[in-house]
Amino acid sequence: MKHVIHPWHGVSYGEDAPKIVKALIEISQGSRTKYEIDKETGLLKLDRVIYSSFHYPVNYGFIPQTLGWDGDPLDILVLCSQSIQPLCLVDATVIGNMQMIDSGEYDDKIIAVAANDPSVNHITNMEELPRHFISELRNYFEQYKVLESKEVRIENFQDKDDAYRIINEAIAHYKTQYA
Fold first, then answer.
1. I want to staple 115 with a disulfide (CB 3.0 to 4.6 A). Which of 1, 38, 74, 91 is the partner?
2. Where does substrate bind (predicted)?
C-alpha cells in the first residue's frame, strides 16, 4: 500500500518559517466557492458557495502543521498575480496579519506574497501594499457572511513581527495537540 500524505499533517510548514512558509491553497483568487481541507481525510471538500456575490480577492489557504486558536490550521492569504489552483503548495513570504473576529472568536489571517511571483515578491511589509487593497480585504471579510447572518469584524492589520509571533504560536500549539 502506498503512503498517503495528509495536507495538514504530512506537509511541513517550511524550513524558513516564520519568514517564509509553505502555504497550501484551498481557494483560488476570484472564486465564490469555499473549499476547505477535510480534517479527517485530507481531501478538499466543498464547505459552501459564498451566499453573496463576492469573490475571494486573494488566494486563500493554510499553513501545514499549525493550529490556530479557532481549532483549525492557521489561515493564510497569498497575494499573487495569478489565481492559484486548490491543493497547490506555495512558498509564501510573510508580510503581516489581518486580525479578524468571526462570530466572536479570533481568527487570524496571515498575509503573504508568493515568493516565486516576480510581480509581487518585491513586497516585504504591509506598508507596501496599496491602501485600496487593504480596504478591499477589510470589506470582503467583513461583508462575505452578512447574508448568512454572521458577524465578522476586522480588528486591525498587523506587521510581520506580529505575524511571525502568531505563526510560531500556531506551530507550538499544533505540536501540543498532534506531536
1. 91
2. 34, 48, 60, 144
Q: Which residue has the higher pLDDT, 42 or 54?
A: 42
CB neighbour list of residue 163: distance below 8 Å, 6 or more residues apart: 18, 94, 95, 96, 97, 110, 111
Provide the residue ranges of all domains of the chain, joining segments of one domain with +.
Answer: 20-178
* Residue 178: C-alpha distances to residues 9, 161, 171 (Å): 8, 26, 10
Annotated binding-site residue? 117? no
The CATH code for residues 20-178 is 3.90.80.10
Using the structure block, give the residue that is written with the C-alpha cell 465578522: 152
- Taking a C-beta distance cutoff of 8 angstroms, is the pair 98, 108 a contact? yes
Give the separation between CA 120 and CA 13, rounded to whole angstroms. Answer: 21
Cα 68 to Cα 20, 63, 73, 107, 119, distances in angstroms: 18, 10, 6, 7, 30
- On whether 70 is known to bind a ligand per the annotation, the reply is yes
Query: The C-alpha cell of 55 is what?
Result: 469573490
150 labelled binding-site residue: no
Grid cell in block for residue 143: 461583508
60 is in an annotated binding site: yes
User: Is 91 annotated as contributing to ligand binding?
Assistant: no
Helices (H) and strands (E) in the chain, counts: 2, 9
